[in-house]
DNA sequence: GATTTTTTTTATCATTTGTTAAATGGTTTC
DNA sequence: GAAACCATTTAACAAATGATAAAAAAAATC
């Protein structure tokens, strides 16, 4: 997805502000398997996915748990780094070869203080991420793993087509064996 | 908690901007049991809790599930109303007599477009809510109900002292019977 | 302060999910 | 295209959680 569309979906900026913001965004490419964010590190950039699919995961005891998938148009952000300049708790790894838009956090922070339109763009960016986070939280608390698998199948079929089931099982909070049972049942 | 402290904890505003923002905030009181937000309604205000404790809940089939508790200093927001002017899915009810600070959403929205400092205050407000939402999401996905009960006991003991266990069980995603078993075990 | 009502705990049994291991199916590599 | 490797499904058993009901404890009401 092109950067103009990604930026516009968040908040329509006046043309001058948009050009300023875009002047700080560059394109980067990484191969499948590349680890973009490392846990316990303060990340200095945020990204938007032009092409590809990625996952965020963290470790609990010795097993890793996937808690987010990103695909075309989605932002990749280590929230603790972005909001508090603190170390993040997550790895983000690429599940496919990816093309990304990169934006340095420190540049963005100074733009927030200089340009009211960009400040409001940043506000809407956080607000939309908040809405998404809340929706995931509600889904996790209200729906069974079966419900959430069916919802994923319906709303994000490309995730299920493009991602290994072990990651999806982990994302749903169940074992791979349980996911297999669910898949066998709903057929 | 006083409004100055609540506002400052989010983002330190220049004195003039702070006075403008405060001029739109008023104090209101409601008795225990009052339903502040109603599901399927677009709410026109956000609140900050000066004194008291509240819960947000929604219905799944016929049983209600509590998914948030708020206490002194916390904001009360129907995110769908606040961000998208859409209907919320949650009720918010007061568990004690409460004193609240009220801020009309439409006023705040126009201030965002007029004052860059208030826009950045609004950005930090959303960002901090996002951090809290992510932390809850991670806790829900990574930790067992027992872990989360112990964390609640440690980090928010006043919730457990002041709220009925049926609401806490629902918040933890388990039955009241299971919570009783957990409480019996960790003693 | 005794009675009624509500909240919390305990007990029993059924159901669901996890664990481990083996079998099947699919990809990649030489 | 056979061999090796990885992903997914199936099977059997164990452990954890839910459902229901009853008992105990606590709170509210008169």
Textual characterization of the structure:
Two copies of one chain form a homodimer. By secondary structure, the first copy, chain A, is of the alpha+beta class. Chain A has one domain (3-142): Sandwich (Jelly Rolls), CATH 2.60.120. Chain A contains nine helices and eight strands. Chain A has helices at 3-10, 15-22, 79-84, 105-114, 116-142, 145-155, 157-162, 165-172, 176-186, and strands at 25-30, 35-37, 45-51, 54-60, 63-70, 75-76, 91-94, 98-104. Chain A has a four-stranded antiparallel beta sheet. In chain A, a hairpin with a 2-residue loop joins β4 (54-60) and β5. In chain A, α4 packs across α5 and α8 (165-172) packs across α9. The radius of gyration of chain A is 17 Å and the shape is globular. The two termini of chain A are 33 Å apart. The relative contact order of chain A is 0.17. The model of chain A has no long low-confidence stretch (mean pLDDT 94). The interface between A and B is medium-sized, with 34 and 34 residues. The first copy, chain A, binds a DNA duplex (30 and 30 nucleotides) through residues 145, 164-166, 174-181, 183-184.
């Amino acid at each position: 997805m092109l950067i103009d569309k990604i930026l516009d979906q968040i908040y329509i900026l006046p043309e001058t502000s948009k050009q300023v913001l875009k002047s700080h965004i560059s394109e980067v490419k990484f191969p499948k398997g590349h680890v973009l964010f490392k846990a316990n590190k303060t990340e200095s950039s945020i990204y938007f996915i032009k092409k590809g699919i990625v996952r965020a995961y963290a470790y609990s005891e010795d097993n890793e748990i996937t808690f987010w998938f990103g695909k075309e148009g989605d932002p990749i952000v280590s929230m603790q780094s972005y909001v508090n300049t603190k170390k993040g708790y997550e790895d983000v790894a690429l599940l496919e070869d990816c093309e990304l838009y990169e934006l340095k956090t420190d540049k963005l922070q100074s733009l927030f203080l200089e340009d009211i339109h960009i400040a409001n763009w940043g506000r809407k960016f956080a607000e939309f991420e908040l809405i998404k986070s809340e929706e995931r939280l509600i889904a996790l608390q209200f729906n069974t793993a079966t419900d959430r698998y069916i919802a994923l199948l319906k709303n994000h079929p490309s995730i299920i087509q493009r991602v290994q089931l072990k990651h999806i099982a982990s994302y749903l909070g169940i074992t791979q064996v349980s996911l297999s049972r669910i898949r066998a049942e709903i057929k």
